Amino acid sequence: MNGHAGRPWRTAPPGNVNAVVGRAIRERRDLERITARDLAARASVSSAVSSAMISRIESGQVSPSRSMHEVLASALETPIASLFRDTGSAVSDFTHIRNGEGLKSRRMMGEHVHDFTALGFHRRGDMQFEAVMVTPERYEDIAPPTYTGHGCVLIDVPGSEALYRYGRQEVHLKEGGSICLDAELRHGIHKVLTQRLRFLPVQAERR
Asked: I need a labelling partner for 80 at 20 to 30 A (CA). Which of 67, 89, 154, 158 fits?
């Protein structure tokens, strides 16, 4: 089948990026837990789209126009660039930190001082990921700092124990436990319960 003027897609030739983009659309749709019919209904607000067309796009059988990509990205509430995240360079980065290694730094915030070791920092498409190991120098008589930010954060306290405050909630963190939170709400260590504290925040956010 050949594309016709005004049609928002055309038959895709083999070996191009359409299968990759289609897979990204399907993955995002699965993440949203919606059907192809649901996505078509959302997209139809801006353009005539059927569930059958969605299925053909996801299987890489057709080449949507840029305007159709924009419509689908908007319907999925995701940047259009995320649909093409796997179609560019084949470069991928990974970081392997051996015991005791990592980029070591010290942060001074008024009277509060803590050392931290960067374990990994990655940017891919519209996503940013960072992991650090934090070792406060002292907490006695000094209010621990609190944080707000963007994205989601996982907090672990290897070999330590502390009370961690998230908004008005207080969580007792022990070895083997963790807390995962939305970084928009104020959070931070409230009270250290062991002689030495180490905590590991792992953060992912949209750029």
From this structure: 154
